[in-house]
Here is the input.
Amino acid sequence: MSKQRVPRPVQVWAECREKLRHVRLRGDVEAYADGQLTGVRRARVAAHVGACWACSGSLELLQLIKASLRGSPRRTPVTLASARVRRFAHRLTAPAGPERPGG
Here is the structure.
């Protein structure tokens, strides 16, 4: 049976501090991706992203999503009125068949 190693309080505190730092930086990484940060805050996030693989991955993912959205055409949901007009136009242009009386 091997003896389990108990982490020292200094290690536990360092890990907790790093986790809290990531929670605080999560919004900053998103703002950094949008170009909304300036000055010291921007430099701090840039330095962190350069050293942290998790945050750099999040940043890369955000940048890929934004590039994908920029490249796609803008689509808005079809309104009910628009759907009704299209359906009516389709009925007017459809050929007369046995199920539809000729007009």
Observations:
- The first helix runs from residue 9 to 34.
